[in-house]
């Protein structure tokens, strides 16, 4: 279920007086005395249907609905909203008795930790915890080694490039997306030291987060890198990356997707044969792991990192475009897991 920001704001105001004394999760059972979990999930910009980051979170929520005894409610963020709206959204879900509650995206971190203090019996997860830090006995942070997955697709880009020039397009210039750039460049240089990696192009600078949702921005950036000679371009730009993939595909060059396996996604159907691979970030796994821990009463606060060692990140093989270099990529993966290769997190 999606509800508008106006609904969120109005509801939050009406529930504000309830404060910590609001309805607590688990008030209703499933008929045999066992309490059914009510999961509340607040999406990042773009929401369900972005065919990237948010959809990966949605997949984890859908799996929880299928495999566990849960009901759910979803709320989407609004572009350029003030931080207070994120807090209101989380507080609304808590007051309505949802437990556990999930905030998708690093921008929720501060608000989620704050709200969690007021609802000590409710468990909270923030996906992409800012700087991989959270606090509170009822708070979990999911972090990802995006640089490691990006290293592998960077190697793929270098090995597949015919012009010897590749590019990277980031949505918003923030430390999280800098990790993607750093890993991609390092992987490309490791696989082919002579490769030329164009200067990274970031679509917007904070506090403007249009770079995660506006495909037109991705389209223009891709044109610029194609004109500069790149024949493989990796995007870490959420919904804006749809513009990158389609533009690169129109020129019959290689595009690399992000977060989800973007090969079979409808928005890029016309370019699918030119999607080399995707850097897969298993947000779905983090969401499901968290819900399952609450359901089984095994929840532990703190942070958990998803990386190559636990298949929290990786690369997609859909379409068979990297079959000929898979052995090389898997060798690099093994070296990273064995700590023979240390992947940088900063460009």
TrEMBL record:
GO terms for cellular component: plasma membrane. The keyword Metal-binding does not apply. Keywords: Cell membrane, Lipoprotein, Membrane, Signal. Pfam families: Bmp. Residues 43-344 form the ABC transporter substrate-binding protein PnrA-like domain. It comes from the Bacteria. InterPro entries: BMP_lipoprotein, Peripla_BP_I, PnrA-like. It is a lipid-anchor. It is found in: Cell membrane. The keyword Repeat does not apply. Belongs to the BMP lipoprotein family. PANTHER family: ABC TRANSPORTER GUANOSINE-BINDING PROTEIN NUPN, TRANSCRIPTIONAL ACTIVATOR PROTEIN MED. This is BMP family ABC transporter substrate-binding protein.
């Amino acid at each position: 279920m999606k509800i508008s920001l106006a609904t969120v704001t109005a509801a939050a105001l009406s529930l504000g007086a309830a404060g910590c004394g609001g309805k607590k999760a688990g008030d209703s059972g499933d008929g045999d005395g066992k309490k059914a979990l009510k999961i509340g999930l607040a999406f990042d910009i773009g929401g369900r249907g972005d065919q990237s980051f948010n959809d990966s979170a949605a997949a984890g929520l859908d799996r929880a609905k299928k495999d566990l005894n849960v009901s759910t409610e979803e709320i989407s963020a609004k572009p350029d909203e003030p931080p207070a709206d994120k807090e209101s959204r989380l507080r609304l879900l808590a007051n309505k008795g949802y437990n556990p509650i999930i905030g998708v995206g690093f921008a929720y971190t501060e608000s989620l930790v704050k709200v969690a203090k007021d609802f000590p019996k409710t468990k909270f997860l923030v996906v992409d915890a800012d700087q991989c830090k959270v606090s509170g006995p009822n708070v979990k942070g999911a972090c990802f080694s995006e640089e490691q997955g990006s290293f592998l697709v960077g190697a793929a880009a270098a090995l597949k490039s015919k012009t010897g020039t590749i590019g990277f397009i980031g949505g918003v210039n923030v430390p999280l997306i800098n990790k993607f750039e750093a890993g991609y460049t390092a992987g490309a240089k490791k696989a082919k030291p002579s490769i030329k990696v164009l200067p990274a192009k970031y679509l917007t600078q904070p506090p403007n987060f249009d770079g995660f949702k506006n495909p037109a921005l991705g389209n223009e950036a891709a044109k610029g890198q194609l004109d500069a000679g790149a024949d493989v371009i990796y995007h870490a730009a959420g919904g804006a990356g749809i513009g990158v993939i389609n533009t690169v595909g129109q020129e019959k060059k290689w595009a690399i997707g992000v977060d989800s396996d973007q090969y079979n996604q409808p928005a890029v159907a016309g370019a699918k044969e030119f999607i080399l691979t995707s850097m897969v970030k298993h947000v779905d796994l983090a969401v499901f792991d968290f819900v399952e821990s609450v359901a089984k009463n095994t929840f532990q606060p703190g942070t958990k990192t998803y990386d190559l060692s636990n298949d929290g990140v990786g690369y997609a093989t859909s379409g068979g475009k990297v079959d000929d270099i898979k052995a090389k990529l898997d060798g690099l993966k093994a070296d990273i897991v064995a700590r023979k290769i240390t992947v940088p997190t900063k460009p």
